[in-house]
Amino acid sequence: MQPDAISLVLAAVVAWLAIGALGIAGLRKLRFVSRVLFPAGAGVGIALAVVAFLAIGAPANAVVLPFGLPDLPFHLRIDALSAFFLVLLGAMSAAISLFSAGYFRSSEGTPPGLICFQYHVFLAAMALVLVADDAYAFMVAWEAMALASYFLVTTEHRIPEIRRAGFLYLLIAHVGAIGILLCFGVLQGGSGDYTFAGMRAAALSPAWASVGFFLALFGFGAKAGILPLHVWLPEAHPAAPSPVSALMSGVMLKTAIYGLLRVAFDLLQLQLWWWGVVALAFGLVTALFGVIFAAAQTDMKRLLAYSSIENIGIIVSGIGLAILFKAYDKPTLAAIALTAALYHALNHAFFKSLLFLATGAVLHATHERSLGKLGGLIHRMPWVAWLALVGTLAIAGLPPLNGFVSEWLLLQAFLFTPTLPQSFVNMLVPIAAAALVLAAALAAYVMVKFYGVIFLGRPREANLAYAKDAGKHERLALSLLAAGCVLLGIFPGVVIHALDPVNVLLVGSPVGEAAGNWLMLAPFGEDRSSYSPLIVLVVIVAVVLVTMQVVHRYYHGRVRRADPWDCGYPLQTPRMQDTAEGFGQPVRQVFEPFFRIERELPTPFDATPRYRVDASDPWWHWIYVPVARAAELAARFVGLIQQGRISVYLTYSFVTLLALLFLVR
Amino acid sequence: MNVLPLYAQLINLFAAILLLLSFAMLAQRRVLSLIDLFAAQGLALAASTAIVAFGTGQHHLYWSAGLTLVLKVFLLPWILYRLIRQLDVKWDFERLINVPTTMLIGIVLVVFSFNLAVPISQLASTVTRSTLGIAMACVMLSFLMMITRRKAIPQVIGFLSMENGLFFAATSATYGMPMVVELGIALDVLVGVLILGVFFFQIREQFDSLDLKHLEKLKEGE
After folding, report:
1. What are the distances in angstroms from CA B177 to CA A476, B117, B169, B171, B182?
2. Cβ contact B148–A644 (<8 Å)
């Protein structure tokens, strides 16, 4: 008898947990953990990806586990949507585990065996989130995921800032979890049946369905980093070790996307058009905000964290568009928008993991996160630099890499839409498309800054000369991810075809054969728009080769070597290169209202002039600081009750007792 | 005029003694006398429970009475005596509100309790229902005693005396709680006293005194 997909997924989960337990057993045996356990985890990840890939097209497959609470067993189920995200999880975990095998060293913080345990529990919890089929199992897995990732973020827990970042993350994760819990409470519709099957059967009024949808948007948005719940991302990512950042940004954020899709399209049986508009608006604002802030960052991991916010915004706007089309009963268009969102989720997982891991390699080699102290690393770390270049080009949305395909697809969905029956929405769509293009263009700008400042130019600090390239595990992992970026970019037809079961499940229509074959991508017919990445690649390669030949043939050997004109500056130091701050300055200037900028300018008579500019996130001051102040004020009032005298406390209870007796008699 | 049977009259008598002892504890300054009063209260409670058991034929109440006798007349006072000897504290103590005021407040509480007990007594079908008011008054007075004391040991005695009142209330309203609950409470009280005894030592070690005003420093802030 052939084992069914869900049992195999469960086996992978158990295998990960077992690897984690072995990590506990070998708490301080770094070699054992890094050479045996992490590669084993990577193997499990590959197996999971293969199983899940085969399960995308297969019919849904459910199982009820014999444990859980009494009368409340865990229900698990794998369908096309779960399977797609499991593929993502499996592939990413394989590459990131491989990288981790070479990454983790003994440090002051958590011992390696414990990291291994937390890491694999994190993976297992994410897999369980994706296959959970009742609210109870989902919440248990969700919270396990949050806790495991919290401990991973605070690996270097001896540093106070990192503890603070971890706390912020945990706090927002819990606020979000409350939203999700309430959402499930609404979705069961008074039946008391908390299985997902029961929620699908519950007939909700539009008002309650809306409440459920927005609770889900809030709860999953907190995890995904939708504005204004994004503040934990730029704090937690720099704090976490790089493989953990990669895993959180690449996979964990996608579990939130998964949850949102699950609630919006699967558990809720009706969709209202204005949900789509709200999701679209939030998505676009998040994307713009994220990318503008990314441009202003000077810490490479913070920059990537803001870039993750931007990409999540793009994915959410795709989901919003899909809801809009579904509500107006245009399933084919909804399928294209949804495909774009899913495709972007997959792409983002690949290139963002690649870049986070690359920053990890840079961090290990240089012990420096600040862009102002890096530079010229392409000479010292060629492997990392060239592989990161692939990721950088992909995230910048350049053809023929993968980032272009999904953004192009989403733009097509925006632009080539027949008029929707709502004139207001019709006006909105071009504006949304323009915002999306702006975000994409700014993302390219950000990535030029990211890559240029870290890898190009000359080293800004002397100790960068000692930077060593990554080890073989790291190289292999980065190569895998870069290869993924290229392949996903060159064969979009194959990917879109593979995504069709998800579309059929969620919006009731495939993108169809029209979306093109393996060579050509043409979602709306070839006469309207089409894209063939392979031809683009061939053209690019051909142009490069021809140019090289021409240069080689006609100009080579006629080079005159001489002192360059030094522009009147006889002394040039690496510090005179354009800095990260300088590169981001135009964006800071143009989008000044978005920032909260504090400047400290030197006077002309200053002997030791200092220039300081601090562009901080205004959402802190708009939302979080007032909330914190209000809580503090309330706490102060409550604190008045605390007298310290036992007799006073006794009097409180005595008076309460008397009052209650008086009232209920 | 309807004359009550003898055992009911006896129950009422013991109830009155219980209330009187509560007032006495409220006014007692010396800690040793306080323990004696507590033991006396336990004795009155055990006696009244035994009489209820005799009068109504509720045999499980004999067990309760025996338990009360052993625990509250012998064991707990003995533990407390020993504690005082070991801690070497046989002082007089001041109170927050002076004695006449405390007594007046106590009388107000008794009136309130009787007022409160009237509707419940009418619902209850037991012969002892008229004593419910007294039982509640005992609880209230013990609570008041805990509020007015500043030293640790009298507070614990107040707590124990409150438990006496609760026990009496249970007996008078429903002929006692189920045996399991009673045993559980008895055990809780015993363990509670033992733990509090440990606390006494800890508090004294920390502050060189058992005066609870030192604990005020533990509050946050300032």
Report:
1. 73, 18, 10, 7, 6
2. no
